[in-house]
């Protein structure tokens, strides 16, 4: 399910995903993006290859006595893994995202957050959080700045902000230096997957109050 | 003169195939002897204590056996494949998190791995390992630490007193060299 992606992930984030050091919420966005972007997939393979080289160059640590025998016992208790038959999603959500939602877009339990905007928070480890956002075409997202890192992946429709137009498969990474006001483009309503490692900070009072209740 | 010379360029493809086809314990023992002490070291550098690292290493090596039929030598070297198994086990066992994985590309009907493709990939992996060992030490250490995940870039900055920009540019330079080696 490859898309014509124009906004890509940084090497730093892809490398951290390959290394396995990202919070789960970010990993979900990255895995979903890679499912839609062949370039990211190729770079992931490069970074995993670097991981293999690092492993192979690691100075050895001695194992406990009988470790090989213990491992062979472990193997005898395990069944052979079935051949993976993970399907490639035909829907709006790629497979890794469907595994967190429990299905495609029609199974999302949306909550209204005002102005026609809806969200659904997905359960991950609490070092960062990730949500689906539904923004009606032409609607503006609340104006907000950032404390930490925020990653937004478009799944349907498009949004525009100071950095350009973001369509399905495109990913925007923002940090505290970016003050953005994304607007969902005309046409199809916009659905995004967005992860952040800090609560978003809204510049107007009402969203700031809402923030407490919405966990955003 | 680089003292960090590589002596082994064994690719382990035959051993993994022997496990898959004949449940060959001798081939497994050879793989175990090479990789288990490295996996354990890797896990300890990633923050596991010795006991947890030992236990997780045994699980990683057992997974290598049970997933041997899924190893594709045209897509990854043995070291890379074992690295991904170790990484996933460590996220699960040490960090207690799930690991979301991208969906697989729709491959054609399962064919026997192409010998030539497999050899090309294994050669590429050797070149990459060589390039990693030949990186200037300051760059190599930063790349390794990024993979051990013991510290974030900003934590490395705080610990070494290096500006964050310097760390990022060293890692970037290292990646450029490694990429060049893989071409």
Helices and strands, with pairings:
The complex is a heterodimer of chains A (216) and B (183).
Chain A: H1 11-19, H2 24-36, H3 38-57, H4 67-77, H5 95-101, E1 111-114, E2 117-122, E3 129-135, E4 144-145, E5 150-156, E6 158-161, E7 164-167, E8 171-174, E9 183-184, E10 190-196, E11 201-202, H6 205-214
Antiparallel strand pairs in A: 1-2, 2-3, 3-10, 4-11, 5-8, 5-10, 6-7, 6-9
Helix pairs in contact in A: 1-3, 2-3
Chain B: H1 13-22, H2 25-45, H3 50-66, H4 78-93, H5 115-133, H6 137-148, H7 153-160, H8 164-182
Helix pairs in contact in B: 1-2, 2-3, 3-4, 5-8, 6-8
Can you offer a commentary on this structure?
The complex is a heterodimer of chains A (216) and B (183). With 216 residues, chain A is α+β, with helices and mostly antiparallel strands. Chain A is built from six helices and eleven strands. In chain A, the strands form three sheets. In chain A, strands 1-2-3-10-5-8 form a six-stranded antiparallel β-sheet, covered by helices on one side. The two termini of chain A are 30 Å apart. Chain B has 183 residues and is mainly alpha-helical. At the A-B interface, helix 1, helix 2, helix 3, helix 4 and helix 5 of A face helix 2, helix 3, helix 4, helix 5 and helix 6 of B.
Output mean pLDDT of chain A. 86
| Greatest interface | A-B, 62 and 77 residues
Largest sheet of chain A: 6 strands, antiparallel
Model regions low in confidence, pLDDT < 50 over at least 5 residues of chain A: none
Structural class of chain A, please? Answer: alpha+beta
Query: How helical, in percent, are the residues of chain A?
Result: 25-40%
Number of strands of chain A: 11
N-to-C CA distance of chain B: 25 Å
User: How many β-strands of chain B, per DSSP?
Assistant: 0
Strand residues, percent of chain A: 15-25%
| Fraction of residues in H or I helices of chain B | 55-70%
- Share in β-strands of chain B: under 5%
């Amino acid at each position: 399910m490859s898309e014509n992606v124009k906004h890509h992930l940084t090497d730093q984030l892809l490398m951290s995903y390959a290394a396995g050091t990202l919070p789960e919420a970010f990993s979900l966005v990255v895995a979903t993006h890679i499912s839609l972007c062949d370039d990211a997939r190729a770079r992931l393979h490069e970074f995993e290859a670097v991981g293999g080289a690092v492993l192979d160059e690691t100075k050895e640590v001695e194992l406990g006595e009988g470790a090989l025998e213990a491992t062979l016992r472990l193997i005898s208790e395990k069944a052979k893994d079935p051949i993976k038959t993970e399907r490639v999603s035909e829907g709006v959500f790629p497979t890794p995202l469907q595994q967190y939602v429990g299905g495609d877009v029609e199974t999302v339990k949306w909550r209204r957050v005002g102005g026609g905007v809806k969200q659904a928070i997905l359960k991950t480890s609490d070092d960062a959080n990730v949500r689906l956002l539904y923004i009606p075409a032409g609607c503006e997202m609340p104006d907000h700045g950032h404390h930490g890192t925020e990653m937004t992946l478009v799944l349907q429709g498009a949004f525009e902000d100071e950095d350009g137009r973001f369509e399905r498969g495109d990913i925007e990474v923002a940090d505290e230096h970016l003050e953005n006001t994304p607007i969902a483009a005309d046409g199809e309503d916009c659905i995004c997957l967005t992860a952040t490692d800090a609560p978003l900070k809204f510049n107007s009072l009402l969203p700031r109050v809402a923030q407490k209740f919405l966990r955003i | 003169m680089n003292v960090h010379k590589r002596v082994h360029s064994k690719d382990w493809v035959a051993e993994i195939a022997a496990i898959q086809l004949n449940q060959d314990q001798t081939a497994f023992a050879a793989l175990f002897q090479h990789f288990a002490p490295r996996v354990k070291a890797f896990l300890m550098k990633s923050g596991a204590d010795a006991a947890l690292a030992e236990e997780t290493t045994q699980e990683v090596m057992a997974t290598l056996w049970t997933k041997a039929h899924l190893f594709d030598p045209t897509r990854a070297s043995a070291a890379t494949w074992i690295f991904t198994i170790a990484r996933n086990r460590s996220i699960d066992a040490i960090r207690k998190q799930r690991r979301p994985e991208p969906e697989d590309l729709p491959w054609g009907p399962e064919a026997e791995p192409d010998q030539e493709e497999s050899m090309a990939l294994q050669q590429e992996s050797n070149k990459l390992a060589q390039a990693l060992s030949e990186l200037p030490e300051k760059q190599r250490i930063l790349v390794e630490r990024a993979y051990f995940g013991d510290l974030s870039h900003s934590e490395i900055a705080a610990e070494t007193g290096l500006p964050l920009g310097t760390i990022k540019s060293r890692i970037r330079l290292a990646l450029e060299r490694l990429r060049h080696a893989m071409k």
